[in-house]
Write a structure and sequence with these properties.
By secondary structure, this protein is of the alpha/beta class. The protein is built from nine helices and seven strands; from the N terminus they run H-E-H-E-H-E-H-E-H-E-H-E-H-H-H-E. Helix 3 links the parallel strand 2 and strand 3 (66-68). It is globular. It starts with 5 loop residues before the first helix and ends in a 7-residue tail after the last strand.
């Protein structure tokens, strides 16, 4: 019998979720959304103290289980460390949110190799090899009726020309979008659904560095930045967490290999 209630369509209760780059910004917003709806959430980020503090705060705020697994996902060593620690805790993984990302700003004349490699290693290589290493856990969780999910967080800068001189960032996200489509086509046969989200401007540390406030998220005039968005504002936690939850719930189980913009209308305008 078909059930079209909100809970049956969108529930993620009891799911085991890993959010990379989950200690701040969009990753933290998505982690909070899953926690608020009854999922068990692991978050990972490079700085252990920040990751630990965020996990403790989110667990207290939402009354759920949020566990910190710090790791540098730009290296295979860091990826293997994270996978080993997660496998020690869980036999299955329902949801992988590949959100960890890096950017680098410099003019085309001065852009360094280290800025190219750091961004590509984190945004593309890291996503591929982390997903590869976690396939056994994802396959163990996925069924024909309820596949496991992978959501890759790309960017509208992988679709349109970026506003800033971040020469490796846009190409890395375009590559991630292509990887999402290829993964989606292959892994569906293994009861793993892969999709992507391409966010626009959100009130994050990364964007604050781009707009000139140097990482001061609280001190950035987000209302002024939002005036340049067709929707008239920057994104919120509800926007990005809601879309991620849709993709990882029953409601999103026929969406495969897509990259959905979450940008207030920037790309279409």
């Amino acid at each position: 019998m078909t059930s079209l209630t909100i809970n049956d369509l969108f529930s993620v209760e009891g799911k085991v979720v890993l959010v990379t780059g989950g200690s701040r910004g969009i990753g933290e917003m998505i982690a909070a959304g899953f926690l608020a709806n009854g999922a068990k959430v692991y978050i990972s980020s490079r700085k252990a103290d920040v990751c630990d503090a965020t996990a403790e705060r989110l667990a207290a705020e939402y009354g759920g289980t949020c566990i910190s697994l710090p790791a540098d996902l730009s290296t295979l060593e860091g990826i293997d460390t994270l996978v080993e620690r997660l496998r020690a805790e869980e036999a299955t993984l329902d949801v992988l949110i590949n959100n960890a990302g890096a950017s680098w700003g410099a003019s085309i004349d001065d852009f360094p190799e280290v800025g190219w490699d750091k961004v590509m290693d984190t945004n593309v290589k890291g996503v591929f090899f982390l997903t590869q290493r976690l396939l056994p856990l994802l396959e163990a969780a996925g069924t024909e009726d309820d596949p496991s999910r992978v959501v890759n967080i790309g960017s509208i800068d992988g679709i349109k020309t970026p506003s800033f001189d971040t020469w490796s960032y846009g190409p890395s996200k375009a590559a991630l979008h292509a990887l999402t489509r290829q993964m989606g086509s292959r892994l569906i046969k293994r009861n793993i659904l892969v999709n992507g989200i391409a966010p626009g401007p959100f009130p994050t540390w990364m964007l604050s560095t781009g707009v000139g406030t140097g990482g001061d998220v609280e001190g950035t005039d987000w209302a002024a930045i939002g005036k340049g968005v067709p929707r008239g504002r920057v994104g919120t936690a509800e926007d990005i967490a809601g879309l991620a939850i849709f993709l990882c719930s029953r409601a999103g189980s026929f969406t495969v290999g897509d990259v959905i913009t979450c940008d207030g209308g920037i790309v279409v305008s």
